[in-house]
Amino acid sequence: MANNGNANGNVWQFKGNTATSDAAAVALRKLVFKMFRNYNLNSGKPILAPSPGDPSASPSFLTCPVAEEAVAAAARSGMANSYAPSPGILKARRAVADYLNGELPAKLKEEDVYITGGCNQAIEIVIDSLAGNSVANILLPRPGYPHYDARALYSCLEVRKYDLLPQKDWEIDLDGLEAAADENTVAMVLINPNNPCGNVYSYDHLNKVAEIARKLGIVVISDEVYKHVVYGDRPFIPMGIFASIAPVITLGSISKGWVVPGWRIGWIAMNDPNSILKSTGVIQAIEDCLDLTPQPSLILQEALPDILEKTPKEFFDKKIKAMRHSVEFSCERLKDIPCLFCPKKPESCSYLWVKLDTSMLVNIKNDFEFCMKLVSKEATQFNGSIANLQ
């Protein structure tokens, strides 16, 4: 038991909140920086430590000059020095609605969109808004993005997992998805394009997911942050197309598409043509959560319409070409590493998802130990264990 006393015999009535430690323990950043601490500063080797999902440090993946100028112009304008309204400024919300509408049969309006500090804050707000029931649970993909697990744990929302099937191009195990739910299930998370597996779901598969969500009476949280990082042949289909079947909350940001994760600007979009999210109080809960959290930078909000509307197609084409080259190169080099195997060449995302065969290694028990030793011996960092490399 911790000693809460001091030298004078006083007993302090406070202590740290262990819920934060429990949640942070499953967060990707916690794992990455834990491995980084294992690096020998005296090794003389420069560390190759890619930040999770962030290629922006590479000169091959610089952002668009249009985006940079939009931010600079917003800063110079003198119009972005005040506080922003909790849901975001109207022109930013309108620009996101226009950006997402595309082929959506039920078009979004500006009031259906909320601006957030990146996609991670969007995740936190949506999870918190659904966590009011003490016995509620949420369905998360396995493998998946650990921030969902961390936030659900912090918000006391039970996590249940459904599997992605490598032998079926990482499609969702639909039978397993349905079996994991019960009368206390409130939502499922769908990541498309998928992080970390790199697959893109077909129209038919997403339609089946929507039908299951309707049968279960749950909302689909669709994480679409990688929609502009698709370099395979299968086109991206937004889950909002199926919102007439089951309500869909779309999460997104410019972090991956524009290669600017440090700018921290994202959104929540309510695809709710049947007003289910409104009648169940979810929209009100999200708006209340927004009143409790810091607003994203007004400079970025002012710049967002120009970023979304004026970025030339050539920027994305160039980035996708570089991504495709990196994937081809990496998969080819993997053939020379017997203990690592890639189940499927990715079509999207900025990860290469591999399987580790520990039987071919000496004194390596699991994927986490492999990654830790790789850092200490070779100054190269992988994201293992939480990513289920094994």
From TrEMBL:
UniProt xrefs under PROSITE patterns: AA_TRANSFER_CLASS_1
Keywords: Pyridoxal phosphate
Family named by the database record: Belongs to the class-I pyridoxal-phosphate-dependent aminotransferase family.
Pfam families reported for this sequence: Aminotran_1_2
Record-given protein name: Aminotransferase class I/classII large domain-containing protein
Cofactor: pyridoxal 5'-phosphate
Keyword set includes Amino-acid biosynthesis: no
Superkingdom of source: Eukaryota
Upper taxonomic lineage: Eukaryota, Viridiplantae, Streptophyta, Embryophyta, Tracheophyta
Every Aminotransferase class I/classII large domain range: 60-374
UniProt keyword annotation of Mitochondrion present: no
